User: Fold this.
Amino acid sequence: MKTVLTSEAKLEFTERKRAFQSAFGAGPHGPRVMELLSLFCRGRDTTAIEGHDMIYLLEGRRQVFLLIQDYLDLTPEQLIRKYTKPVE
Assistant:
């Protein structure tokens, strides 16, 4: 299976990346916000704790944190490959 890198997809993911960088990136408050989100979302910690309900809650938070981190760290091409369905 292969992911198609169309010019429209590349433009869309480039614009999304810019939006995430503007909100969470190296601006005056971005690093502090990401630090706080990392703690709240357990970005660097395990979500495996006692109680299944809490695990699901923490895993959902962590997925959001990882999505933000991906948009800050990955290239538009990498984002397309990761977040679009491959063409069969």
Summary: The chain has a mean pLDDT of 89.
